[in-house]
Amino acid sequence: MKKYGADYLVQVLGYADSQEAASGAMGALELSFLRARTVRDYLVDSGGLDASRVKAMGFGSERPMVTMPARLAGPRTGAWT
Q1: With 60 as the cut, is the pLDDT of residue 81 above it?
Q2: Are 3 and 45 in contact, with CB atoms under 8 Å apart?
Q3: Cβ distance 49 to 20 under 8 Å?
Q4: Nearest CA to 35 among 51, 20, 53?
């Protein structure tokens, strides 16, 4: 990602649905944000990216990334530059 120079911005988007959140103590929005933040922290700590250039956002069940059959594949996190 460093090939973009000093003007890059990475957005890490986390997703979770109400079914995943129902099994724990937190809601889907919080779970999706925690997923995105974990990936963001990894990119900053291990990837050497500038923390001010990497943003984490969680969408919960507000903007589903996949349909129910694809849900079986596991948690979803996306990163875009």
Answers
A1: no
A2: no
A3: no
A4: 20
Q: Which helix (H) or strand (E) holds 57?
A: strand 54-58
Residue 39 pLDDT: 93
Over residues 8-57, the pLDDT tens digits come to 888 998 887 767 656 666 788 888 899 999 999 999 999 888 899 999 99
CB-based contacts of 66, cutoff 8 Å, min separation 6: 15, 73, 76
DSSP state of 2: G
User: Domain ranges in the chain?
Assistant: 9-80
Helix (H/G/I), strand (E/B), else coil: 80: strand
Class at the top of the CATH hierarchy for domain 9-80: alpha beta
